[in-house]
Specification:
A: Peroxisomal Thiolase, Chain A, domain 1; Peroxisomal Thiolase, Chain A, domain 1; 2 domains; five-stranded mixed β-sheet; 11 helices; 13 strands; B: Non-ribosomal Peptide Synthetase Peptidyl Carrier Protein, Chain A; acyltransferase (chain A); lipid biosynthesis (chain A); fatty acid biosynthesis (chain A)
C-alpha cells in the first residue's frame, strides 16, 4: 500500500500587538469602512521591534508539536518570504529552538502560496520513505516591509505563523492529503516584489533606495490573477481526486481579501457560506494564512472531523497551489482573540 | 430582458449587494459602486461568457445593457 502524508497536529499564533483599522487610518489616507468593504479586514497583529519571523515560527511549531503529541520530527520545512536574514535559512534555527536535534531543515520561498508548497514538499519526503514525520511552518513578518504611504499594502498585511505536523499513514484515513495541484508563472513576477536583499538589487551597483525595502504590489492585477489561479487550480485538483465542488464542507483559500475568496467561490459555483474567513481578525498573513485559518476554525468547532476541506493559495511569483483532505480529529488552540 | 442582462443584474444584486431596484438600463453612475465591483464582474463574465473585458471598459459601458453589448461583440473594445 502506498504511504500517504497525514495531518496529525496543527498550531498557529499571531504577535500580541493588535492594530485595528482606525490605527491604520492614522498611517495612510483611509478609514475603517473603506478597509472593511474593500478587503473584509477589521484588524491585524504586528510584531514588536526585535521580534523576527523565526521567533513566531518557533511558537507556532511548538503548538503544532503539542497538538500532535510528539516531540520529534525528521524534517522542518519553513515557508517564508521574510526570513530572519537572506542567509542562513531560518529553519535550522527554528529546529534547534524547538529541541528537534540535528535534523534537516530548509526554507522555502513561494510567498503567500508557501504553506501549500511546504505541505507538498513534506508529502514527498514522507511518500519517498525518507521521513516518518515532518513539521511544516508558514510564517511571515510583513509589517516591517510596508510602505506607510502605500494604501495597497499598508492596510492588508498582518504578521503571524502557522504550522502542521504530517506523519506517514494510510491514504484512506482522515487527514491524508488527497493530492496537489501546484503552478507558477514568472511572466508576472513584477506584480508583487520586495527588491531589498536580492542579487538583482545588489547588481545594479547603486545604493539601496528606500522603496527597495518595501513590498510593492499591483493590487488590481493581483486580484484577477488570484481569482483565476485559485479557481483554476482548485477545479483541476477536484477533478483529479474525483471530488465535486458541491462535496466541499470548507473552501479554505489564502486569506488576502474576502472579495477575492467570494469571487473564487462565485466562479466555481460554490456556496459563499462554505468560504472559510479568518482575515477579518488577522489580515493577510502571507505564508501563515492557511494554517492560521485552519487552526482557528478547528479551535472554534467550525471544522469538524470528516469535513471535506479544500486548501488553495496564491501569491507573488506568481505561485499557486491547492490540496484537499478529510479533516482529521486534531487538537487546536485559538491563535488570536475572537473579539 | 435579455437572459445575459438578467443574469448580470442578478449577480450585481445577489453577490455585490447592489440596490435591487437596478435594471439593465440603470446608469452605473446612479449607483454607489466601489472600485472592486467591476473587477469582480470582469472575472465572472470571462468565466461565464468568454471574453475578458477590463473593468474600466465595463464601467464605461455605462449600464448592464452596455455590458451585454460588449459581451455580444465577443471581445473588448479596442
Amino acid at each position: 500500500m502506498s504511504r500517504a502524508a497525514v495531518l496529525t497536529g496543527i498550531g498557529a499564533m499571531v504577535p500580541d500587538r493588535m492594530v485595528d483599522n482606525d490605527e491604520i487610518s492614522t498611517l495612510v489616507d483611509t478609514n475603517d469602512q473603506w478597509i472593511r468593504t474593500r478587503t473584509g479586514i477589521e484588524r491585524r497583529y504586528w510584531a514588536d521591534p526585535g521580534v523576527s519571523t523565526g521567533d513566531l515560527a518557533v511558537e507556532a511549531g511548538r503548538r503544532a508539536l503539542e497538538s500532535a503529541g510528539v516531540d520529534s520530527v525528521d524534517l522542518v520545512v519553513m515557508a517564508t518570504s521574510t526570513p530572519d536574514q537572506p542567509m542562513p535559512a531560518t529553519a535550522p534555527r527554528v529546529a534547534t529552538d524547538l529541541g528537534l536535534g540535528n535534523i534537516p531543515g530548509y526554507d522555502l520561498s513561494a510567498a503567500c502560496a508557501g504553506f501549500i508548497y511546504g505541505l507538498h514538499s513534506a508529502t514527498g519526503a514522507i511518500a519517498s520513505g525518507s521521513c516518518e514525520r515532518v513539521l511544516v511552518i508558514g510564517a511571515d513578518i510583513w509589517s516591517t516591509r510596508l510602505d506607510p504611504e502605500d494604501r495597497a499594502t499598508a492596510i492588508i498585511f498582518g504578521d503571524g505563523a502557522g504550522a502542521a505536523v504530517l506523519r506517514a499513514g494510510d491514504p484512506e484515513e482522515p487527514g491524508a492529503f488527497a493530492g496537489f495541484d501546484l503552478g507558477s508563472d514568472g511572466a508576472h513576477k513584477d506584480l508583487a516584489v520586495l527588491p531589498a536583499g536580492g542579487s538583482r538589487q545588489r547588481s545594479r551597483g547603486e545604493p539601496l533606495r528606500e522603496a527597495d525595502n518595501y513590498l510593492a504590489m499591483r493590487g488590481k492585477e493581483i486580484f484577477t490573477h488570484a481569482v483565476d489561479r485559485m479557481a483554476g487550480s482548485s477545479t483541476a485538483l477536484l477533478e483529479r481526486i474525483g471530488w465535486h465542488t458541491s462535496d466541499l464542507d470548507w473552501f479554505v483559500g489564502h486569506q488576502a481579501n474576502a472579495r477575492i475568496l467570494n469571487t473564487v467561490a462565485d466562479v466555481m459555483h460554490a456556496d459563499r457560506e462554505r468560504v472559510l474567513l479568518h482575515l477579518d481578525r488577522v489580515g493577510n498573513t502571507s505564508a501563515a494564512s492557511i494554517p492560521l485559518a485552519l487552526t482557528d476554525a478547528a479551535a472554534d468547532g467550525r471544522l469538524q472531523p470528516g469535513h471535506r476541506v479544500l486548501l488553495t493559495s496564491f501569491g507573488g511569483g506568481l505561485s499557486w497551489g491547492s490540496t484537499a483532505l478529510l479533516w482529521p480529529d486534531v487538537a487546536a488552540l485559538a491563535p488570536a482573540p475572537r473579539t | 430582458m435579455d437572459a445575459i442582462a438578467k443574469h448580470i443584474v442578478n449577480i450585481l444584486v445577489e453577490k455585490f449587494s447592489v440596490d435591487d431596484g437596478i435594471t439593465a438600463a440603470t446608469e452605473f453612475s446612479a449607483l454607489e459602486l466601489d472600485s472592486l465591483v467591476m473587477l469582480e464582474l470582469s472575472v465572472i463574465i470571462e468565466r461565464e461568457y468568454g471574453p475578458r473585458i477590463p473593468e474600466d471598459e465595463l464601467l464605461e459601458a455605462g449600464s448592464v445593457n452596455g455590458i451585454v453589448a460588449l459581451i455580444s461583440a465577443g471581445a473588448p473594445a479596442a
